[in-house]
């Protein structure tokens, strides 16, 4: 069986940002680009900061339009984005 690399998009920001709107924008963006999301996990460490992880085996490596749109959506709302890979 072929191993898949799961790419995880980590989001972090202040609670002044409506996290559900950010997640909603990103899931809409993924749907538009036909990317299925495996999991969304959101954690709040204190009442001022939140962290969210969106994981998928289908985030495209070479789709610059997708990544540009993702970074535009998040930067407009002052949300930090980091990427990591995890092999299944």
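Sequence proposed for the structure above (88 residues):
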């Amino acid at each position: 069986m072929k191993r898949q690399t799961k790419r995880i998009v980590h989001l972090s920001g202040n609670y002044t940002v409506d996290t559900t709107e950010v997640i909603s924008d990103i899931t809409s963006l993924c749907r538009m680009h036909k990317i299925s999301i495996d999991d969304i996990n959101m954690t709040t460490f204190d009442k001022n900061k939140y962290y969210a992880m969106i994981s998928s085996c289908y985030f495209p490596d070479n789709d610059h339009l997708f990544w540009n749109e993702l970074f535009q959506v998040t930067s407009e709302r002052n949300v930090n984005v980091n990427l990591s890979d995890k092999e299944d």
